[in-house]
Amino acid sequence: MITHNLQKIPPILLLLRPHQWAKNVLLFLPVLLAHRFMELPVLLNVVWAVGCFCLLASSVYVLNDYLDVEADRRHPNKRNRPLAAGTFPLKMAPPLFAGMALTALVAAYALLPRAFTLVLFVYLVANLLYSFKLKHIPVLDVVFLTLMFVLRIYAGGVAGGIEVTDWLLSFSLFFFLSLAFAKRVQELKLVMDATPESSGKIRGYLPRDQACITQIGICSGMLSVMVLALYVRDESITEVYASSHILWLLCPLILYWIGRLWLLTLRGGMGDDPVLFAVRDKISYLILFGVGAVVQAAYWLDPALFR
Questions:
Q1: Degrees, nearest 5: CA angle 171-144-216
Q2: Rounded CA gap, 289 and 301, in Å?
Q3: 3-class secondary-structure state, position 205
Q4: DSSP letter (8 states) at residue 86
Q5: Could you read off the pLDDT of 240-254 as tens digits, one per residue?
Q6: Are residues 143 and 66 in the same domain?
Q7: 205, β-bridge pairs
Q8: Is 202 helix (H, G, I), strand (E, B) or coil?
Q9: Cβ atoms of 104 and 120 closer than 8 Å
Q10: Residue 150, exposed/middle/buried by CB under 10 A (0-12, 13-18, 19+)?
Q11: Domain interval for residue 64
């Protein structure tokens, strides 16, 4: 059924992976947490920034598929990707990558602060390093994937002229490190389930590494909640939130989401990507709504109501 549905989508659209653009919503996070989403110039800048990131990210996916075409042809799911399946000309991938990457950088230079263009260029260089070398080095590959998420958040702050706090960067680092390890565990499980007798390396990982990277991933998720708890205890947040103690409710919400994600991952039900899993998951939307409601309540409610 999935393969049949994929045949209805133009190959170039599959190659660009627009569903992955959901990750770039992270650029709006500094604007939302600074409560400046009603300022049109700031919001417009971040919208342009998201567009540039989407274009550049798609160019990187094209390059990755071009470099991994032989490995993808042996993968149970990735063999259906356009370059691996032969539905998009392999020789067209390099010029498509170069054209999209250059367009994203030029648009950023023309429309946004110069510092954002530099961040976007760093994102491109980091992805090139990852694609050509680092994705085959265990643990380092996951660290770089995590930094790509953190860099998105920082880029959103740069585009909107908003300072990104150390608290947000610290939380994001541990949170997305947990998600990146979950992705690797899922990939290991997928290949092991398809070929149980396999003992070879998968992106530099061995099947017996699954227990170790699972422990690191779960611990990273718990550390992100600890950072959040320390932030809620910080007296400086009373300058931003009228009823900052309400923010404690964020901790059980995030704990539940991370715990459920890892439970589903170990059961093999998370899918290929934890971020895309969240985009399709109804429970994740409920958690997101709860997080938004808690943050807004802490910002707007009069502390006198709780005395």
A1: 60
A2: 17
A3: strand
A4: T
A5: 898 889 999 999 999
A6: yes
A7: 202
A8: strand
A9: yes
A10: buried
A11: 1-164
